[in-house]
Amino acid sequence: MGDSRPHDALPRNEWPFVGRATALGAVTEAAARQDVNGVVIVGLPGLGRTRLAREAADRLGAAGHPTDWSTGTRAAGTIALGALLHLAPLSDSAVPATRQVFGRIVERFSAPTGRRPVLVVDDAHLLDSASAALVHRLAVHARTFVLLTARQGQVTPDVVTAPWKERLARRVELRPLSDADMDALLERGLGGPLDAVTRRALRRLSAGNPLVLRELAQSGLEGEALVRVDGIWHLREELRITGRLGDLIEAQMQVRDPGVLSVLEVLACGEPLGQHVVEDIAGHAAVVQAERQGLIVAELSGSRHQVRLAIPAYGEVIRARMPRARAWAIWGRLADSLGQVAAPAGGRRARTGPGPAQGGARLAGPRAAGRRRVRRRPAGAGGRRAAVGRLPRGRRRGGRGPDPGRGAGAAGPLRGRGRRPPGCGGVRRRGARRPAGHPPDEDRYWKHQVSPLRGDPGGDRAAEAVRAWTMLLEGHVARSLAAGTALLATACPPLPVEATLRAATAVTLAAGLTGDIGRADAASVTGLRAAAANRTASPWERTQLGAARCLAHLLAGALTTAAEAAEAGYREAVEAQTAPVVGVWTVLRGFVAKAQGRAKPAQLALREAIVLLGDQDPLRLRGLYLAELAGAYAMAGDTVRADACLGRMAGCPPPPGVIFDAWIERDRAWVAAATLDLLGAANHAMDAAKAAREAGTPMVEALALFDAARFGAAKEVCERLHRIAGETAAPATAAFARAATALAGDDARSLMAAAGTLDRTGHLLHAAEAAATAHGLHAAAGRRTAAKAALAFARELLAECGGARTPLTDLTGSGASLTPRELQVAKLIAAGLSARAVANRLDLSLRTVNNHLGRAYAKLGVSGRDALAQVLSGPTGRPEDSGPAGR
Fold it and tell me: Cβ(597)–Cβ(765) under 8 Å?
């Protein structure tokens, strides 16, 4: 699975300042205006009031404003001017009178200076009356700019709020950070990207609160639940509630009202709940006060008023630290309250589900929590049933119910949606259903045999659906397409939904492999209709059908449509928070980006997918993913990482059937091309084309043949490409054939025409290579205007390709004076390989490699690896374009 390092980057004391640029600009702009006396920053705890004030103070101090800082605390609030005493000049009196201190501070801030002074008062809502009056005096009657922070929902001295009420000061309200800002904060704070499931789990638990987010990440790193795998941060297990995290969240909540604490405890045991249910237990006034303090959120759900915790992490901490007896009591009260609502006056419980006894069985869960383990049932559609179904959330020990109380220093789990629910053991019983959204076991997926009952036509047809899928994997694409199409076209006897989805998936993928987009779309629509009409279809079965349609468009050359489908499927899967499904769609994002030629996005997506899918590889496709990742690295000229991926692929089980063999061979071709072994690369590509032809996949064959043309074998593949273009309806094959013919004939004008066609179909790198080659041909023929236009087009396309560096994209001209072997050695050295590693790779002596390298240095006029990488970097000649490995 690659390296797994938990402590590569611990969060710093202060994470990057993200998402508050507008608020910071408002503060600094207000300080520059003489008619504005100050700014009041208001927000809930953890949203960054203090951080924003500090950033503003630093910026104003750098601009020449004398700046002083004070902090209001409850202890200082018991002393007159307690928070501001440090601002008074030293006095001969041991205990200066309040009036003297007041006057000295006013005198200090009234002294003439070049820039008006700035006084920052953090947590101004905790100031005593005298301090508040002094701050008001400085803001209104002196030339001081006052910057205050106050907690939303707290009673603030009126003299502090007066300036902004009287429009002498401005009010800046901080809101929770957006999802995009939270993602940026995580990535910059941890020093690397996170997989989508981990990002969303941390976002959900912190609900836009940057302080909670940072502490969650800190807890994950310290507990080694958050680890870096293949450069991607991944939450490999549930976060634990450490003492530090629990103490911080309790301090942030600042719950001193027993009624408010009761509200939070009730919601921690079963959020969301109907407002009337919570009020029956904790009281209406307590619910109102909790909402006023920003601890809970009241919202309308259908026709019901529901309440939930403002930040889900609050509930996790409360549950972990709640005494067990208190949790049992709350669950009992919830069961009684909900039971009274559900039971009519006649004594019979109202029906809440398909069966008459289902409601009573569900209400028994909270009452029996202390006596036996209760299996959680999925929440029903009704509001009260949904609430009951979520009651037993505490972590259980030994089957004896919840374990909410473990002391301040104890550790408990923090759960994101989509993770294993409490009460589920690590060993699955034989015959038990897999969680929704997870792929079936390998034997069931690839080798599932259907033994129909004798005389059962539906069973016979279901077996045919399985055989259609098996034929596809074994390389009998045309037979699979015919069998699957016949099954979907016949409505009687009815085909089971699982078999329908399997047949539709086989037809969709087979049609894409043959370039028939119309048939692929029709089959996928048939499968989706069957899934929509039958709720027994699992999310995984829907996913495989959507993935097949995306792949069909990719293979047929409709890359724009494929990219849209991959992004839509990815977003939907992330919302559902099921890691295997997210992993599948992430793989597709990587496949599409690589097909477009966007090397760096492809690398990131494929790395993320490999992390999400983990060591569990029931579909036996991990080797394919690693091969595609190797190809994506090779497209960027990163031979070191490409070789490493191929090495890891060698340790994986081979993919099922022969349908994926050509894909993997194409990636081997690209790894060879990255070392400028163009003859070897062309041979690998021709081998891939042969394997694709034998499997009956003309679209993969066309891709492999065009790869061979790009590696210098254009004359050898032109005829076959034109034949495929005539046999398939996909427009991409015709564009490949025309481009290969232009490459074979060094026809610059035809290459530019092909570049335009390839660009319109979404093949960015193919188009860039055609334009770059046309540029070289035009320049060699002295056609400066045409060469300049081709160069501009190639640079524009390569900018979209995200770091792609292939043999046909060199626009620098730096390699023109080098022999092929000198250029090959120079680029391998620039990519990070040692001279001995280059010698071993190219089967040369170390002395020969050094001789080639010395001549390359002399011809290019450079010395050293870094200078060589800069010269050979990219189309713009900028070293930052070369990516991590350079060229």
Answer: yes
**Alpha-carbon torsion, ordered 742, 747, 750, 754, to 10 deg:** 50
The bridge status of strand 413-414 relative to strand 239-240 is antiparallel
- In eight-state DSSP terms, residue 420 is P
- Judge whether residue 571 has pLDDT over 80: yes
Q: Are the C-beta atoms of 407 and 358 separated by less than 8 Å?
A: no
Q: Are 315 and 267 in contact (CB under 8 A)?
A: yes
Assess contact for 245 and 350: CB atoms under 8 A: no
pLDDT in tens, 223-270: 889 999 988 999 988 888 888 888 888 888 888 889 999 999 999 888
**Size (the chain), residues:** 887
The Cα–Cα gap between 572 and 581 comes to 10
> What whole-number distance in Å separates Cα of residue 735 and Cα of residue 755?
9
Strand-by-strand arrangement of the 169-173 sheet: 67-71, 118-122, 145-151, 38-43, 169-173
Coil, helix or strand at residue 414: strand
Looking at residue 510, its amino acid is A
End-to-end CA distance of the chain: 27
d(CA 813, CA 533): 61
461/482 Cα distance (integer angstroms): 14
Model pLDDT, residue 91: 59
Please classify residue 289 by burial: count the beta carbons closer than 10 Å to its beta carbon, then call 0-12 exposed, 13-18 middle and 19+ buried.
middle
DSSP conformation letters of 564-632: HHHHHHHHHHHHHT-HHHHHHHHHHHHHHHHHHT-HHHHHHHHHHHHHHHTT--TTS-HHHHHHHHHHH
**Cis ω on the peptide bond leading into residue 452 (within 30° of 0)?**
no
Question: What's the angle, vertex CA 533, arms to CA 529 and CA 536, rounded to 5?
Answer: 115
**Tokens of residue 152, six digits:** 């939303």
Distance in angstroms (rounded) separating the CA atoms of residues 753 and 70: 68
Q: Kindly provide the residue ranges of all beta strands, DSSP E only, lying in 290-409, ordered along the sequence.
A: 296-301, 304-309
Considering only the C-alpha atoms of the chain, give the largest distance between any 2 of them, rounded to a whole number of Å.
108
Q: Is the pLDDT of residue 389 over 50?
A: no
Q: Which H or E run contains 247?
A: helix 243-253
Count of C-beta atoms within a 10 Å radius of residue 25 = 12
Report the predicted TM-score, pTM, of the whole model to 2 decimal places. Answer: 0.76
Q: Which of 201-210, 454-463, 855-864 has the lowest mean pLDDT?
A: 454-463
CB 856 within 8 A of CB 868: yes
Q: Which of 860, 869, 861 is nearest to 887 (CA)?
A: 869
